[in-house]
Automatic annotation (TrEMBL):
It comes from Leersia perrieri. Gene3D superfamilies: alpha/beta hydrolase (3.40.50.1820). It comes from the Eukaryota. This is AB hydrolase-1 domain-containing protein. One of its GO terms (molecular function) is carboxylic ester hydrolase activity. InterPro entries: AB_hydrolase_1, AB_hydrolase_fold. Signal peptide: none annotated. Residues 79-315 form the AB hydrolase-1 domain. Pfam families: Abhydrolase_6. GO terms for biological process: lipid homeostasis; phosphatidic acid biosynthetic process.
Amino acid sequence: MATATATMALLLPTSPPTPLPMRARPAPATRRRPLLRASCASYALKEGQSQRFHRLPCGLDLEVIAQQPPAPAPPRPPLVFVHGSFHAAWCWAEHWLPFFSRAGFPCYALSLRAQGESSIPSENMAGTLETHTGDIADFIRKEISLPPVLIGHSFGGLIVQQYISCLGGSELMHPRLAGSVLVCSVPPSGNSGLVWRYLLTKPVAAVKVTLSLAAKQYANSLPLCKETFFSPEMDDHLVQRYQGLMKDSSKLPLFDLRKLNASLPVASVPNNTIDILVVGASNDLIVDAEGLSETARFYNVRPVCVEGIAHDMMLDCSWDKGAGIILSWLEKLTPR
């Protein structure tokens, strides 16, 4: 318990979150390291998938796993997928890239800085909301011909929210989107509210989540990894395989969490700026029902909670449930 309590301090602000704090720009990092392209545990691409690297203006490379529709079809908006912590492009390539490409959507999964096989920057963190959002905008601007649907999971969902907040500005800086899907997303106020709620109402769950994520014990305990990310019905051999890929995916933390939480919430946008689907999981140990509702309220939409599925919706044993809901939403998407 002492270890968990100490580790919890890494996630928490010094007091409970207050509404609508002023946005603060993160201070520059001081520790430096040589620029490297990361190596990752071997992920075998599926038939029809390709891997390439997108060169950013700063000289770093982002890993991209792409999959095109298997047969010529009428143009449909491309889908650009953004992962969360301890994941990379491979988490989308397993099930959702084949599923959505078969439905006629060109698919592109990115690995953020220092994740997967993307380059490692010289700072001691992979980036900030602004740098990650800028990287995605650069990829869309240079490599995507039609306005895409941006799909983000967990902390990747928060990055997508930051992108949405920039849509009122120059299209040259942040190209417009056809829509956005937030999957088990960290809410606009960040993860501190989630942590405080767990501490006050579910202390055992709070300890488990802290040990698993902040102390990274998911990498050493198969049962803890399974409980954090997957449903109890998930085959252990699959959990072990994904555990190995997660363990090797993240060379640096995506963010400095203290600085991130101080900069939140993300800026709101006028209603009808963009079509947004907010989808969560009934068995999510990381983002609770109130976190899902907060995100939906922020964008004035009705949340969809998928029953019988856990946080890693795109990898879980019932991955097709969430994919089917998103596909139905995409089929009804009205071009703006």
